Amino acid sequence: MSEDQLNNLQKYSACDISDALLKLEKVEEGQRACAGFLDGIVFHVGGSISHGQSHASKKIIAPAFTVQFQPKAPINGSDSLPKAASSNISPGSQWSDLVQSKTMVVIQQPEGQKCAVVGGIHALNIDRKGAKGILVSGRIRDMVELRKLKCPIWARGTSTVGASAEATAYATQVPVNVGDVTIKPGDIVFCDLVEGVVVIPRGLLEDVTKFLKEHAEAEDGIKYAVKNGMSVSKAFAMWR
Questions:
Q1: Is the distance from CB of 137 to CB of 157 less than 8 angstroms?
Q2: Measured at the alpha carbon of residue 162, what is the angle toward residues 172 and 156, in degrees to the nearest 5?
Q3: Which tens digits make up the pLDDT trace of 63-85?
Q4: Distance in angstroms (rounded) separating the CA atoms of residues 229 and 25
Q5: Using one digit for the tens of pLDDT, what is the confidence trace for 7-58?
Q6: pTM to 2 decimals?
Q7: Residue 129: its pLDDT value, please?
Q8: Angle formed by the axes of helices 14-24 and 205-227, to 10°?
Q9: Could you please report the per-residue DSSP string of the chain?
Q10: Contact (Cβ atoms closer than 8 angstroms) between residue 89 and residue 172
């Protein structure tokens, strides 16, 4: 994908992206149609985003760099650790040293943990390496330090407890799950401060871009017609 392709998405909202994915994604029978929406993920901190900016500038759009954490010990009375991808983090290495610039760092934390998997030191390192943002399907900490960084951070919540209490980084650049959405390395993470976070599968980017242009024209037509007295039913019939 090119920078131009990503920049072109700035004119749209996360709701527009989900409308596109609802039409384009194939949903297996019995599965829920998520349309890329990451439920429960909210913006927490980040020096490069302020609430005074225009709507178009309140978005971070970047390919995913994924990190998978796993529990340090068996949970719920089981005798073994959950199965995960093969570890590709060398002993003695730190996961944040592997992060690539211009990516959105997407971190899967095991469900139900009370610890944070991102704190001041790792976030500082990610910020220094030029990542576009951090997204955690779990908790973050050291909020005072995180507020000083340029790198914006989305998460489910916060904690005072460090990762070493419950979690360990296990693999990078593997598929990760955030709720019901599977995110693969290189998928496009669309973080909209106003509307929420949506993920576009990399293979659908061109189709999504084409749909968005046509969809925007139709939406504008519907809104113009309704504003000028047409019923929604008639406007939908005309434009959809």
A1: no
A2: 70
A3: 999 999 999 877 665 555 555 66
A4: 34
A5: 889 999 999 999 999 999 887 776 778 999 999 999 998 765 554 554 455 7
A6: 0.88
A7: 97
A8: 110
A9: --HHHHHHGGGS-HHHHHHHHHHHS---TT----TTB-TT-EEEE-TT--TTS-GGGSEEEEEEEEEEEEESS--TT-SSPPP-SPP-S-TT--GGGGPPTT-EEEEE--TT--S-SB-HHHHHHHHHTT-SEEEEEEEE--HHHHTTSSS-EEEEEE-SS-GGGTEEEEEESS-EEETTEEE-TTPEEEEETTTEEEEE-GGGHHHHHHHHHHHHHHHHHHHHHHHTT--HHHHHHHH-
A10: yes
Residue 219 to residue 80: CA distance in whole angstroms: 52
- 110-150 pLDDT, tens per residue? 999 999 999 999 999 999 999 999 999 999 999 999 999 99
Q: Which residue has the tokens 């990542």?
A: 131
- What are the tokens at 202? 């990399």
pLDDT given for residue 83 in this prediction: 59
For 38, the token pair is 């990451």
What distance in Å separates the CA atoms of residue 145 and residue 119, rounded to the nearest whole number? 8
CA distance 117 to 107: 8
